[in-house]
Amino acid sequence: MFRKILVATDGSEYSRHAFSAAVEMAKGFGSEIELLHVIMKHPHIMASEVSAGVDMTSMEYEAHSKTAMEDTMKGIDVGEIKVETKIVHGYPSQEVVEEAKKGADLIVMGTKGHGPWAGAIMGSVTQRVVSNAPCPVLVVK
Fold first, then answer.
1. Using CA atoms, how far apart are residues 135 and 141, in angstroms rounded to an integer?
2. What are the UniProt keywords, alphabetically (predicted)?
């Protein structure tokens, strides 16, 4: 039923829950997982300029992304499940939807993530993905 499961991560605990749920589903369906992290573009800031008051280079953004993915997967037994990791640059909701259009049968993501609105009922990125996704979206608490 679900050959390819796309899991969007920002490294938060909600992303870990989503990844864990995706792994369990993948084991049951024999699916593969793509773990995606988006390095966010800010409309007024270049990727090599200031972000949250801290100067970060492109290499530092890439290292942060790899850490976010490692944190998401840490301690979760994937067994024989194939997990591909991918880092892209852009606006998170748009990039998740675009990546899903490349063949995902299901998107799994957390209800909330890091950021100033982490306490909101459902994160704005999650809401936009749910509204625009080309496939089902499982939102995990």
1. 19
2. Cytoplasm
Looking at 36-45, 52-61, 77-86, 120-129, which range is the least confident one? 52-61
- The pLDDT of 1-10, averaged and rounded, is 95
In a domain, 48, yes or no: no
Could you tell me the CATH number of the domain that includes residue 119? 3.40.50.620
pLDDT at 56: 66
Rounded to the nearest 5°, which phi and psi values hold at 3? -75, -40
pLDDT score at 62: 86
User: Domain span at residue 84?
Assistant: 4-39+65-140
Domain count, the chain: 1
